[in-house]
C-alpha cells in the first residue's frame, strides 16, 4: 500500500497556479496592510493601460485642435468683453444723470457708430491718399536728403558715403521698378482682402460688445450664483475693483493718446510735413500701447519728417526727446497710479510680455490684465496669508 505523497504547504496568500508569463503589468504599492505592513501587488492588464493612455492623448489632441479652431471666436469674445468693461465708467456717468442702462447703452453705441462711419468715410480715404503720395514722393525725397550738405558731412566723417549711397540707390530702384509696383499691386489686393476681414471682425466685435454691455449685470449675477454664498460675497468686491481698474486704464490711456496726437498734429502742421493725417493716426495708435508704442510711432514719424523736410525731422527729434521722458516718467506714472495702481516696471514687463504673446492686441490688454492680477493678489492672496 503506497502512502500519499505529502503536499507542500504554500505560504499564506500565495497562488497555487503555476507561474506562467502573462501580459499583465505589476504595480507595487507602498500601502501597508493593517496586520503587518505587507505590500500589495496590483496586476493591471497591459492592453487596458495602453488603451486608456492612448485615449487620453487623443482627447488632449482633440481639445487642442478644437481650441485652435475656436481661437478666433474666443479672441472676438475677449476683445468685446474688454471693450464692455472699458465702457462701464461712461455708463456709470450716464446712469448717475438719471439715464437707465438700456437707453445709455443705445446712446453710447450710437455715438460709436457715428465715429466709425466718420473714420471710414473721411479719415481712411485721406490716409490712403497720403500713403500713396508718400510712396510716390519717397525716391525724390531720399535723393534730396542725401544731397544736403549736413548729411554729406555726417556720412563723410563716419566713412559711410559708399554704404549710404548704395542703400539709397537700392531703395530708389526698388520704388521705381515697374515689376515692384506690380507686386505692390498684388500686395494691395491682399491688403484689400485683409481690410474686408478687418471690417467683418469690427462688426462682430461691435455686436458682441453691445450685447455684453447691455446684459453685463445679469451675466455677472448668473456667474456668481454658481459660487457658494460665502465665496460670492468675498469675490464680488474683488471683481468690481478689477473691472473698475480696467475702465480707468482705458480712459487714462485714451486721454494720453489724444494729447500725444494733438501735439504731433500741431508740429507737423507747422512744418508742412506731408501725410499729416497718416502720421497723426500713427501717433494716436502708438500712444495707446504704453511706453513701447510711443517709441515705435516716434521712429516712424521722425523718419518720414526727416526724409521730406530735414528741419521738420530735427524738430520732431527735439519734441520726442523732451516729450518721451515727460510722458514715461511724469505723466504716465501719475495717470496709471491713479487708474490701475501698477508699478512702472510691471507696466513695462506686462507690455513686453503681452506683445510677445499676442502682438499688438496682447500689448493693448497687457496692462489691464496686470492690474487685475495685482488686485487679485492684494485682495485674496495677501489677505489669506495675513490670516494664517
TrEMBL record:
The keyword Transport applies. The chain crosses the membrane at residues 49-67, 73-94, 106-127, 188-212, 262-289, 295-323, 335-354. It comes from the Bacteria. One of its GO terms (biological process) is transmembrane transport. GO terms for cellular component: plasma membrane. The keyword Membrane applies. It is found in: Cell membrane. It is a multi-pass membrane protein. Residues 1-33 are annotated as: Disordered. Keywords: Cell membrane, Membrane, Transmembrane, Transmembrane helix, Transport. Belongs to the autoinducer-2 exporter (AI-2E) (TC 2.A.86) family. This is AI-2E family transporter. It comes from Frigoribacterium faeni. The lineage of its organism: Bacteria, Bacillati, Actinomycetota, Actinomycetes, Micrococcales.
Amino acid at each position: 500500500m503506497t502512502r500519499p505523497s505529502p503536499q507542500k504547504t504554500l505560504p499564506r496568500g500565495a497562488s497555487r497556479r503555476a507561474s506562467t508569463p502573462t501580459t499583465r503589468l505589476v504595480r507595487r504599492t507602498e500601502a501597508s496592510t493593517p496586520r503587518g505592513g505587507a505590500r500589495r501587488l496590483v496586476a493591471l492588464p497591459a492592453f487596458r493601460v495602453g488603451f486608456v493612455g492612448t485615449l487620453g492623448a487623443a482627447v488632449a489632441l482633440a481639445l487642442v485642435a478644437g481650441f485652435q479652431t475656436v481661437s478666433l471666436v474666443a479672441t472676438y469674445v475677449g476683445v468685446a468683453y474688454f471693450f464692455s468693461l472699458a465702457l462701464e465708467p461712461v455708463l456709470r456717468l450716464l446712469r448717475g444723470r438719471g439715464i437707465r442702462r438700456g437707453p445709455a447703452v443705445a446712446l453710447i453705441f450710437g455715438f460709436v457708430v457715428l465715429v466709425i462711419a466718420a473714420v471710414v468715410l473721411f479719415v481712411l480715404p485721406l490716409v490712403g491718399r497720403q500713403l500713396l503720395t508718400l510712396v510716390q514722393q519717397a525716391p525724390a525725397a531720399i535723393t534730396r536728403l542725401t544731397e544736403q550738405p549736413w548729411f554729406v558731412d555726417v556720412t563723410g566723417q563716419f566713412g559711410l558715403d559708399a554704404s549710404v549711397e548704395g542703400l539709397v540707390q537700392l531703395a530708389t530702384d526698388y520704388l521705381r521698378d515697374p515689376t515692384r509696383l506690380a507686386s505692390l499691386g498684388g500686395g494691395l489686393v491682399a491688403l484689400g482682402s485683409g481690410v474686408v476681414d478687418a471690417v467683418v471682425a469690427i462688426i462682430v466685435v461691435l455686436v458682441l460688445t453691445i450685447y455684453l454691455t447691455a446684459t453685463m449685470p445679469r451675466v455677472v449675477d448668473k456667474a456668481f450664483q454658481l459660487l457658494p454664498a460665502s465665496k460670492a460675497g468675498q469675490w464680488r468686491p474683488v471683481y468690481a475693483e478689477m473691472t473698475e481698474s480696467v475702465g480707468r486704464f482705458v480712459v487714462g490711456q485714451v486721454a494720453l493718446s489724444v494729447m500725444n496726437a494733438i501735439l504731433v498734429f500741431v508740429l507737423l502742421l507747422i512744418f508742412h510735413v506731408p501725410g499729416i493725417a497718416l502720421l497723426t493716426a500713427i501717433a494716436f495708435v502708438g500712444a495707446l500701447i504704453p511706453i513701447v508704442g510711443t517709441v515705435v510711432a516716434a521712429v516712424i514719424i521722425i523718419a518720414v519728417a526727416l526724409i521730406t523736410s530735414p528741419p521738420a525731422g530735427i524738430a520732431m527729434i527735439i519734441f520726442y526727446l523732451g516729450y518721451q521722458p515727460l510722458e514715461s516718467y511724469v505723466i504716465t506714472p501719475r495717470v496709471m497710479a491713479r487708474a490701475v495702481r501698477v508699478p512702472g516696471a510691471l507696466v513695462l514687463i506686462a507690455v513686453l510680455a503681452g506683445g510677445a504673446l499676442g502682438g499688438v492686441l496682447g500689448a493693448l490688454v497687457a496692462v489691464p490684465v496686470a492690474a487685475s492680477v495685482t488686485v487679485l493678489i492684494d485682495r485674496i492672496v495677501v489677505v489669506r496669508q495675513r490670516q494664517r
